[in-house]
Amino acid sequence: MGTAIARYTSRPDSRHRAAFPEAFRTGASRSEEVQKDAASMTGVLPTLPPPRYHAAMPTCYLDWAASAPPYLDILQESAALAASDYGNPSSLHSTGKSARTALEDARAVFGRVVGAAPERIVFTSGGTEADSIALLSAIVAKGQRSIVISAIEHAAVFEQARVIEELGVKVIRVRPGADGVVDPGAVADAVRPDTAIVAVMAVNNETGAVQPIDRIVEAVRAATADSGRTPFFHCDAVQGLGSIGFDAAALGVDGAAFSAHKLGGPRGVGAMYLRKSITPLARGGGQERGVRPGTHNTAGAWAFSRAAERSSAARAESFIRARDHERALLDGLRSIPGAAPLPLSRRPGDDRYSPYIVCATFPGIGGEILARLLDEAGIAVATGAACSGAKKERRVLDAMGVSRELSFSSIRISTGRDTTISDIDLFLERAAAAYARYRV
Questions:
Q1: Domain span at residue 434?
Q2: For strand 170-174 and strand 195-199, is the pairing parallel, antiparallel, or unpaired?
Q3: pTM for this one?
Q4: Among residues 60, 235, 359, 387, which one is catalytic?
């Protein structure tokens, strides 16, 4: 058979064949399909099924930063893997060994994608758990009394830092410049002798600002070289992996967090890169070198690794398309009277920003209202980070010095592998119409 299942177990029974006929189909090896550029997969992948709990799919999906539509063939294959290689990877019998083989295969594939040895990869339930493990373990291990984060971190880091602060640890928040980019020198200056960890994200999830992680790491280590007490450096790379990529060796970070569903993998799966061992916080069965105990999500890890692999293979071509979409979007926004991108100085092709994420403001109408109007018109956008829930604050824009009026009226447009120029044109047309009708 040419499925992933054949790699790990030789005896899928008739129940599994009946339940997952598509996954057990015969034909060309799917492992070869994974190696293809994503563009060549157009028309090969199955189409999205109709939603079960909503009346209709959006005409235009522009909220990829919140969650990317999954690669359906990878989900189908991982479902078959879950049905066939259902053993516990920690078990000694052959069924467990089969699952273990699948898990370690996933670890090796994901390690290659991020430029790390397989043993440096720890699978988690998502980016949030990976961030929490890094922050809390650093505090416990080093016994230090301060941490440094950027003021624009994702809630997974920012809110965890608040909890740490309540425990009596000093949290130093470094504000970005007006462009949304954090200055390496400012981060280095914030580090104290008792700093346990420094956390700066790779790509901001609201503005698309790309942080100079390699230069920040270099500045922090230079500033602490004489003390002999270099803090652990953690990077939330959830938005960066699928857009600009991640190279562990080039960046020099000690740890990083990743999430599967941001790049076409399943929900509820994430990973950590750890350059060196950390002190485990939770106790249990000792899985994942004790860093993240609990029974493995083998099929989820496998699907994550394949989605990351496919995304990585298509990154260069996807980035070129994203630049075209960014230009059309930024130029189009400026053609709508009153509307503008945030920051106001952003221009197409600026390397300080991921072309996949654009923050825009429509003064005179609340961002949440505009997002709802666009949803009714078949356009899916966001008002900020999806993980921030119902909070009305615009913390990231506030940290950049954006006025409350512009911040309140902001929305986020984010693109992905299936976005077309027609999608951008449709968004601009319907956003302009809604804005003209409802602005005050």
A1: 315-438
A2: unpaired
A3: 0.86
A4: 387
